[in-house]
Amino acid sequence: MAKATLTMDDLLANADTTAKQLTQGESIVGKILVIRKHEVLVDLGAQGIGLVPRREVGFSRALTIGDEVTASIVDPELDNGYALLSLRKAAKDRGWDEVMAKMESGEIIEVSPYDANRGGLLVEYDGVRGFLPVSQLSAEHYPRVGSSDKDEILQRLNVLIGKPLNVRILDCDRKANKLIFSEKEAIKDGLAARFEKLAVGDTVKGVVTGVVDFGVFVNVEGIEGLVHISEISWERVNNPSDYVKVGETIDAKIIAIDKDRLSLSIKQLSEDPWMSEVDQFKPGDKVEGTVTRITPFGAFVQISPAVEALVHVSELGEGSDADPEKVFTLNERKDFVVLDVEKESRKISLSLPGNKSKK
Q1: Any idea what the CATH number is for the domain that residue 304 is in?
Q2: Which of 239, 267, 333, 354 is most enclosed, with most CB atoms within 10 A?
Q3: How far is it, in rounded angstroms, from Cα 276 to Cα 45?
Q4: Hey, how many other C-beta atoms are within 10 angstroms of the C-beta on 240?
């Protein structure tokens, strides 16, 4: 019996019935066949030829003819018979698998931000783009500036573009295309060990990371500390930036340890000059002082470099005569009489000469 001769059409027909049908969204392995300016052709074996537009190649690797690649099927069959493929989507799909695994394990990974906005840093990991919010930056990198100074926040964040950062994955949702990183979580374990070594009363060194209206933020070996404005100096502080600058290394005393922050004091590293200067004042003494503040309940008067005293409104008379705004002028120097000295509560009461105290 003569052996049947198979034509090319027979072979193609046979291939069509034995080859696995391509399905949109699935991944397939092939070899680079042709590299052109705007497209790449991939040999898929029995499944035919795949076409990858240049925009779907991605930039993670340089391609060479003969390279084996994994691609995602975008369209099983175009009009020209090719399958439309995406190398970028396949890489992203593999990246999501990696991201999920890293999040579940809690592993610390290294990333380098590629851009920034006022809300945080834009990060790409294994082909998946994510976000590192400002709130999840460590004390070292958190841009401590005035809440209204958005431009300075962005300037601080721009410095971190391209800089390697250790992070943990805080949240990821493949369907929502959401990936959130956290630098704070990555250093959490190390911070706990550092906190155990610290105690209230310790003197520490730190770098000033931010100066705001209410105080100074300090990075103490990765731990965030705050020197409240009232703890900067024994004298009255109106502007913290007059005392420290960002980037300056300072010494401070730990006065409280909160859950994840230190409360610090600069002034408590030196003796309180008030306690020594107050000894020169006794009830009945006549003193000269400068009016520093005028309030509805009285006027504050500087009677020595470190001592401020109060003339209470009750010492000014009755009716319109008791209005501090009418009796005093800011920064004027006047004579006063010391009524009382309360050393423990750090209070000195004054009266105007000739006034009869109501005490």
Answers
A1: 2.40.50.140
A2: 267
A3: 92
A4: 20
- For residue 104, give both structure tokens: 């579940």
Which ranges in the chain belong to alpha helices (H)?
8-18, 87-105, 150-158, 183-186, 188-196, 273-277, 324-327
Say how many CA atoms lie within 13 Å of 213 toward its Cβ: 4
Contact in structure between 198 and 258 (CB atoms under 8 Å):
no
Question: Number of structural domains, the chain?
Answer: 4
Domain range holding 203?
199-269
* pLDDT tens digit sequence for 260-300: 789 999 999 998 888 888 989 999 999 999 999 999 999 99
Q: Is 217 exposed, middle or buried (0-12, 13-18, 19+ CB in 10 A)?
A: buried
Q: How far apart are CA 22 and CA 225, in angstroms?
A: 59
Cα dist from 8 to 5, 267, 276, whole Å = 10, 92, 108
Of these ranges, 10-19, 249-258, 342-351, the one predicted with the greatest mean pLDDT is 249-258
pLDDT in tens, 118-144: 899 999 888 788 999 998 998 888 887
Instruction: Provide the 10 A C-beta neighbour count for residue 346.
Output: 13
The sign of the torsion formed by the CA atoms of 98, 99, 105, 108 equals positive
Express each pLDDT in 283-292 by its tens digit: 999 999 999 9
In whole angstroms, what is the distance from residue 254 CA to residue 270 CA?
Answer: 14
**pLDDT digits over 212-242, tens only?**
889 999 999 888 899 999 999 988 888 999 9
Can you tell me the distance from the alpha carbon of 188 to that of 191, in angstroms, rounded to the nearest whole number?
A: 5
Nearest CA to 142 out of 99, 79, 97, 187 is that of 187
Residue 70 inside a domain? The answer is: yes
Whole-angstrom Cα distance, residue 271 to residue 151? 40
